[in-house]
Amino acid sequence: MALQWGCFMKSFLIRYRLQNASPEAWHKDVAEFIAALDSDPALQGKISYRCMKIGNSADYMHIATAVDDQAVKTLQQSAFFSSYAEKTRKVAAGAVDVVPLEIVAETKSKG
């Protein structure tokens, strides 16, 4: 599935196995993507994004949440998203799953 998001306040789980990059290089790329999200004036506070690695494995999971469809469209139109999506496909040897999640219940604190 392509790296695309698109529903009101939906979260997505992105999962893959790191195959074509060192963990250190990939972590740097992920951190740069998150910094771009945080510094983009049109996206600040509108996209929540976390990257997690499963223990001592090469498996990664990312959780992405957008506040609305416009934030998703703005992100998808950015050059840094296109570049990051392509890098993700490359490091995962093309095997990237993007799974929409529906929140059933959550705590008050989202931090």
Notable traits:
alpha+beta, globular, four-stranded antiparallel sheet, 111 residues, Alpha-Beta Plaits, 3 helices
Helical residue percent band: 25-40%
SS-derived structural category: alpha+beta
The largest pleated sheet is described as: 4 strands, antiparallel
Q: How many structural domains are formed by the residues? A: 1
Give unreliable regions as ranges: 1-7
Descriptive notes:
Helix content is 34%, strand content 24%. With 111 residues, it is of the alpha+beta class. It has one domain: Alpha-Beta Plaits. Strand 2 (47-53) and strand 3 (59-66) form a beta hairpin. The chain is globular, with a radius of gyration of 14 Å. The termini are far apart. Residues 1-7 have low confidence and may be disordered.
